[in-house]
Structure formats: structure tokens, C-alpha cells
Amino acid sequence: MSQLKAIQDPHPPSWLPHLAAQGGPRFLQIADALQAAVADGSLKPGDRLPPQRRLAAQLGVDLTTVTRAYDEARRRHLLEGRGARGTYVAAPKVELNPVLDLSMNTPPPPDGVDFGDMLKQGLSQVLMRADNELLMTYHLGGGSEADRQAGAAWLAPMFGRLDASQVVVCPGAQAAIAALILALTAPGDVILAEPMTYPGLRAAATRFSRRIVAVDADQHGMLPGLLEQACRQHRPRLVYLNPTLQNPTAITMPEGRRRELAGVAQRCHVRIVEDDPYWLLADAPPPPIAALAPHQVLYISTLSKCLTPGLRVAFVLLRDPDERERFLVALRAFALMAAPLTAALATQWILDGSAGGLLEGVRKEARLRHRMARDILAGRYGGTGDGLHVWLALPAYWNSAQLARAADSEGIAVTPAEAFATGSACANAIRISLGSIQDRGRLQAGLQRLSHLLARRPEPFSAAVV
Predict the structure, then answer these.
(1) Which residue from 269, 91, 273 is spatially nearest to 182, judged by alpha carbons?
(2) Cβ contact 237:160 at 8 Å
(3) 211 bridge partner residues
């Protein structure tokens, strides 16, 4: 640990940090010290901060480090610049009725990762190495050769070495699902899915006049016997499965069940769409169904659910060249292609290791948040310890829609089971997403508030008269 020395000022401010060699980026240590000083009252709104050069000298760091620290503190709404008068501690930001959003399934921000710096470095490398004209033109073949190679590298933990020509780059998993429906089914066709499933499937199927039929599931996922029965009854064109940390139930289907379902699909000549956004977040997941039955399954892996929502890139593994071409034709009907600049950034991060580092940070943060949820929700916790969400079965005195409304009135957003139901039956549960609230303290407050709400019975409805 390097001891702080006041080089220019014999009486340096008391809030200045001791910069630890192993304490992470120094600019973040300085920003954290500012945040702690504001929190404990050492720094008050309106206090003037030292000029950046003076602070750099006091801390024994370069000016750029202090500039980045002040920028980070401004991003956290701790500081405000007043031109030539200098930099001051900002007044607290007032939020009217702030919503604690537990409804959006997004990756949590990993601790210690400077996302802004990652973006700057990644884009800088892309612009330095890529042909700028190619970044601003059409890519109609499902991504550039480099993008498909990056997709094959991203899918290697699931499948090992892949032929990059079988990988198609798409603008997100929702676009991939919609294009597969258009390419492989016709209006009026049936798609089989579990009773609780991803709402985007239902939205796309409804828009394209396809019909979703629910096949019952148990604690291991869709039941093979009932799948076979439904295949013979409805003659479906596709079966949709989300077998790893399923959205919303958080179930991970065991390998034996995956093999059974693949066998049914082969016997009944029906294709499986395996939407697998969370495989890389799971702890020792079974092989994808697409690895067990390569020619029966169409596989989707998106970066938005395990890295960041803004990276709208998904990789689709399509082994049959005719299906691949039909898929691309369908995709062009509404999305044309993934934005080349976004795809190039994803490729850069995958190939230089940044994506792997970000993924590991998201994993660690997600597991920490699951431990928090397990401690606060106690016996009601319905998670597996990893992934982005918890499926919370409700006590009998609440129903899911009622609980969601009550939570909303207390400034908490959750997703009721009705949003995921594909059949007439609906579980009495809600999905809680653990990544959409960036600050852990606010997440803890939201979970505690929700726990208190669950513990009490709903109040009788009364209409206000004004």
C-alpha cells in the first residue's frame, strides 16, 4: 500500500484515500473515496474540491487519473463543474417516486469493470483495424467472416470447434426467433412450448399467425411423453425450449431429459429451437440439446443476456445450408442484418478476451446477488444461485397479478406469471430479476420491501374519492 503524502498542501483534505496497489484502478479508488466522504458528511453539498493538478500531486498520481476520477464522480452525480470557479460537491439528486425495477432480465453491472473505458478501447481497436467503409455498408450474409469466426469462438464452450460458416450473426435473439418462425413455419402452424415460457416467443408467433400450444412440464422441464402425444395430435413444425436457467422458472433441464426430448423430436420429425441465453452464466450446465442432436436442433445464443443489453448480437447455429439460406431471407424481411459496428465491437471483445472478462464479472456479481436474495427472501427464494432471475412461488393469500399491483404501488416493479403463460393454466408466482438495479444497496432495499409485502396479507380494495 502506498502511503498518501501531501506534496503541495501541508493540510490535505481528510477524505483523501490511501491508494492500495491491489485495490483496483486508482481512479475508481479516488471516486469511491469521494462517494464515501459525501455519504459520511466529510464532504457536503457546495464544498469546493481541490484543483485536479493539486490533487494529483497530493496523491502522487498523474493528472489523467484524477480527471477520470472526477468524471466517474460526476457520472455518479456526486460532483458538478462550475466553469472557472472549479468543481463542487453536487446537491443530492432528488428522485420522485423512484421505481425499484425487479422486472427486466438484464445482466448486473460487474464490480470494478470500467464499462466506459471498455467501450472506448474496443471501438478504438475496431476503427484502427477494420475497413471503415465495411463498417458502414450492408452485410447480407449473416455477418462478416470475422464476425462468424467470433461467433464460433463464443459457442466453443458449448460445442467445441465449429465450422464458422454454420454460424449466423443476428441483431439479437428476438430477431432470431422471429426469423426462424417465418422461415420454418406457415400461418396456422403449431409451435409447442412449456406452460411458462419467454414472452417474446408468444409475441412473434401471434404476430405471424402461428399458434402456441403448451406441453406440461415438471421440475426437470417439458415432459417427453406429453411432447410425443402433442406432436401426434397437433403436427407441430417447431418445439421451443429454453433449457438452461429457464425464463421464468430458473429450471435447468438435466442431460437425461434433454436426450429424451431430442429423441422424441427425431421420431416425430419436428425441429427444436433451443434458445439458450444463460448457458454461460450457469454453474456446470449439461450439454446443449443441439450438442446431443446436432441435426435436429437450431441453437440461439445472445450476448445481450450475459454481457450487456446494448450489445444486440446473437449467434444462431444452423447446420443445414438450405435452412440457413431460408433463415437469412426471413431475417431480411424485417431486420436485414446486425449493425456492422455493433457486431465488430462484439467480435473485438470476443477475440481480445474482453468479453470473457466481462462475462466472468457478470457471473460473480449475479451469484453475489443471488446470495443476497436467498438471505432476504429465506424460504421463498426460488433460484439456483446463478443466472439473472428468481422464480418466486407466492403464498396462497396472494395471487400474482394482485401482488404485482401491490408491489407497483410501493415503487417495486416485478413480473407476474401471467406474462409468461402459454396455456390456460397459470402458476401463482412472480419473476424477480436481480440485474436491472445497478446499485446493490437499492437492490437490497427492493428485496427487503418485497419480503415485507409478501409477509402481510393483501389489503381490501378501496377506491379513493376526490
Answers:
(1) 273
(2) no
(3) 190
Residue 8's pLDDT is 46
- Alpha-carbon distance of 455 to 458, in angstroms, equals 10
Cβ(46)–Cβ(88) below 8 Å: yes
DSSP class per residue in 194-262: -SB--HHHHHHHHHTT-EEEE--EETTEE-HHHHHHHHHHH--SEEEE--SS-TTT-----HHHHHHHH
Q: Which residues contact 453 (CB under 8 A, 6 or more apart)?
A: 403, 406, 407, 410, 412
For the chain, which domains are there?
A: 1-94 (1.10.10.10), 100-111+359-455 (3.90.1150.10), 115-354 (3.40.640.10)
Report DSSP state, residue 388: S
The sign of the torsion formed by the CA atoms of 23, 26, 27, 32 equals positive
Q: What is the SS3 assignment for 105?
A: coil
CA distances from 10 to 6, 14, 374 (A): 6, 12, 49
At residue 408, the pLDDT reads: 93
In this structure, how many other beta carbons lie within 10 angstroms of the beta carbon of residue 295? 9
Inter-helix orientation angle 224-234/255-268, to 10°: 20
Burial level of 213, CB count in 10 A (0-12/13-18/19+)? middle
Model-wide pTM > 0.85: no
**Calculated CA dihedral for residues 195, 199, 200, 205, nearest 10 degrees:** 50
Q: How many other CB atoms sit within 10 Å of the CB of residue 39? A: 10
Count of CB atoms within 10 A of residue 23's CB? Answer: 14
Q: Report which DSSP code applies to 6.
A: -
Report how far apart, in Å, the C-alpha atoms of 146 and of each of 124, 165, 168, 169, 344 are: 17, 11, 12, 11, 8
- What residues form DSSP beta bridges with 169? 315
pLDDT along the chain (466 residues), means of 10: 42 77 82 88 90 90 91 89 87 70 94 85 88 81 91 98 96 96 97 96 95 96 98 97 97 98 97 98 97 97 95 96 95 89 95 94 96 91 90 94 93 95 89 94 93 88 51
Q: Spell out the residues 6+ positions from residue 423 whose beta carbon is closer than 8 angstroms to its own.
A: 195, 213, 214
Q: CA neighbours within 13 Å on the CB side: how many for 434?
A: 33
